[in-house]
Amino acid sequence: MNTKISKAPKASSNNKVMTAGRAWAQIRWAMVAIVGTLGACATRLPPEAPRAPSPPMAPAPAPSAPFDDGPLPGTITRAKSQWVPVRWSELPGWGSDALHEAWNAWLRSCERPAPTVGALCADVRRLSIATPEEQRAFMESRLQPYRISASDGNASGLLTGYYEPTLKASRTPSAEYAWPLHKLPAGVRNGQAWFSRQEMDTQPQAQAALRGQEIAWLADPIDMMLLHIQGSGRLLIQQDGRTERTVRVAFAGTNGQPYRSINTWLQQQGAPITPWPDATKAWVRANPQRVNELLWSNPRYVFFREEALSDLDAQFGPRGAQGVALTPGRSIAVDPGSVPYGTPVWMSTQGPAARFNKLVLAQDTGSAIVGAVRADYFTGWGDDALAQAAGLKQPLQLWALWPR
């Protein structure tokens, strides 16, 4: 189309308007033609080279190049376990966990940095508000996963649960509140061989050492034993018939005697033990004359220390053996001869009470937590935490995530 505008002969004003209108229409159509031609040319340009697909937003189990492709390090031998190196892709469910939920527990461990893993703490703090992809990339680039097994290569173990009980208590003894919790007696060290539980109740020398060491009294002997088993708890202190305040009693030490399960003793008597602790309390009500016999079946006694419980402290669990507050669902108790405190651990369990693959932190231990692949899972506090902890006794696999 010819878009040149020729000079028109002189005409009337109306003719001038008509001529100008026709000229402008010709220009407009020419511009449309040019744009259309350019657009047609654009569609005939060579196609752009295909781009690599973007990674999925939701984490998915997959190898993470280049960190999953290089040569693996050697096996690490510890006092009670061996760690066999594996690929990230071998971790069941890796990529499916909400890592940010475990980051608070990791930050807690960084309050008491452990050897080797503590060197990561600066980056752990920096990544506390990072995206899941950034947190995962950090772990894959800086950590090497190791499958934890016994010295004979057995990588299967046992998972149980524990929680922080909340119990009513009194500062003074009475017919209702008759079962004391004690501080560590003067001159007695944690774990030092001392009087057994039965001797503490019957021998004058032991009773004299315990006099004045009472923190509070509980209304139920099984609640007292429950605190001894869990190692810590919250007390709703009663004073003159009213609630004074809530305090925490934390583990301070033991009498150095061996631990014996009162559940095992009850089973030997033919008594039901589930649901715990309700079945045990029912047995005590039906057999009041045998209460001491039940309690004395476990010679180990736990001493406590009282701690103030601020509103902030109440949002976290008690301090574990690492010395940091435990995080519900993300802290585990381990055998430190197998897994050092502060170690990030990938945990997998598939059982009747729970099925999950998740990141947890080794931050506590316990007298019954012994062995290479053994963990006690901290469920929190309250009735729901009790129900979850009481139901956990199922198979377990663990992977230590150790700095490269």
UniProtKB/TrEMBL annotation:
<feature type="compositionally biased region" description="Pro residues">
    <location>
        <begin position="47"/>
        <end position="64"/>
    </location>
</feature>
<protein>
    <recommendedName>
        <fullName>peptidoglycan lytic exotransglycosylase</fullName>
        <ecNumber>4.2.2.n1</ecNumber>
    </recommendedName>
</protein>
<feature type="region of interest" description="Disordered">
    <location>
        <begin position="46"/>
        <end position="70"/>
    </location>
</feature>
<feature type="domain" description="Lytic transglycosylase MltA">
    <location>
        <begin position="166"/>
        <end position="305"/>
    </location>
</feature>
<dbReference type="Pfam" id="PF06725">
    <property type="entry name" value="3D"/>
</dbReference>
<dbReference type="InterPro" id="IPR036908">
    <property type="entry name" value="RlpA-like_sf"/>
</dbReference>
<dbReference type="InterPro" id="IPR005300">
    <property type="entry name" value="MltA_B"/>
</dbReference>
<keyword id="KW-0961">Cell wall biogenesis/degradation</keyword>
<dbReference type="Pfam" id="PF03562">
    <property type="entry name" value="MltA"/>
</dbReference>
<keyword id="KW-0456">Lyase</keyword>
<dbReference type="InterPro" id="IPR010611">
    <property type="entry name" value="3D_dom"/>
</dbReference>
<dbReference type="InterPro" id="IPR026044">
    <property type="entry name" value="MltA"/>
</dbReference>
